[in-house]
């Protein structure tokens, strides 16, 4: 079995037909765009991160090189470490919750008849289709201090008056709300992909295991999980990357009523340092550090893929 | 996989899960019909007193929704369309053509998948600004084209296609270009549908980038225009804002429903082969 990003080395297609300009024509446009949009800016970013680059430089003044100045400044700033720790913690919690819920929904979906499964798919699709900003606006309102549904229902159920309780002012509950929104939008992708994988687990194996007296948990741990290991790996890595670089949800929630200093994650922090404060050098340094972190997280997977490709 | 019967508790858990998924959307829809007094009322009024379109009218009056919609449509259709064509071409070359440095190109694609767009956003901004592309369609569209997700899914799917068909086509004298569009593409519709949907949703919902390159209201896309609606007056008029939100979400939901069946099949095909 191969996966979303996995390799199919044994079936690598041999070329057919004559050669000519075609290969170049097919590859050139996309490669040019990748180089122009990702390669070139990345190079710029690295350069800027070694320069003193402020607002004056944006308007054309020469940017002097300052060596590792920006990096020492960033790494010496306690706020950077707070942001980094916060981003990682938030990311880990989100990934664990998203993966568990997604797997659970996928497992449940395999046991539904066609009608209910379609119903669940449509629900998942709806949440997935919602623009991130729109989702934040709606959830932000559900959690509104004065007229939010959550406060109202909590007051009704517990008998304690929650009216006026602010969910966004306290960093912990700010991230709880942000986590709910992000999980809400990420579960569908995980659930669909894992469900797709589950349909590939052979019936005979599952039946045999059941006859041998394996319980549901055992069947999942001993059969389903090994079968889907590569899918779990890919989806987890994608989720880590996506959740670590989360921007819109945090940025928009801060707009509704969070304290920026206490709730910024890496993506938002880069934006604030660069465009907010105008310190593009430091912003570039943080961005470069973030790319290195991303690469480090996924290097294991990339190496494996490239290695298999080489066959 | 064997379909074991789901115990009643499972159905209840699922019902709750689906409810949590759908209720915020329902709440948005209901609120878009409520008047200001119905929204700012305690205890909470669940249903609007009437289903009139006053909020929709107010939203349309406050900001030029027509031009927002047109801008979103143009950037989405072109952005997603070009992205899919480029992805198909790249994936075809990576799978079916003996390209030199095939590994290098594939590495490039993986790398592109890893680098978060927002990290290259500042250099891209300077680039776009220096080209004089601020407040233009190409300014919104072009930087978004550097997406590797489609190339990945296409490549994965192409690897599962029967090579014999392409060999026969080659013997009949079909060139690469014709083989791609006349043979490979028709055999890949579910995957293309899945990638198309993901691309359309991403383009349509894109927030940060258009926010940076666009500051003229007549060039704004829907998500950016929505913030304009949010900021028009001091007190948030939730009814109007929700009406605007419905207008932003509706087209995507329609696309979703039209393509729903193909999409799940496409994800399955892309996720697991063999």
TrEMBL record, chain B:
Keywords: Cell membrane, Membrane, Transmembrane, Transmembrane helix, Transport. It is a multi-pass membrane protein. It is found in: Cell membrane. Pfam families: BPD_transp_1. The keyword Protein biosynthesis does not apply. The keyword Secreted does not apply. InterPro entries: MetI-like, MetI-like_sf. Residues 69-259 form the ABC transmembrane type-1 domain. GO terms for cellular component: plasma membrane. The chain crosses the membrane at residues 12-33, 73-97, 104-125, 137-154, 180-201, 238-259. One of its GO terms (biological process) is transmembrane transport. Belongs to the binding-protein-dependent transport system permease family. PANTHER family: ABC TRANSPORTER PERMEASE PROTEIN MG189-RELATED-RELATED (PTHR43744), SN-GLYCEROL-3-PHOSPHATE TRANSPORT INTEGRAL MEMBRANE PROTEIN ABC TRANSPORTER UGPE-RELATED (PTHR43744:SF13). This is Carbohydrate ABC transporter permease.
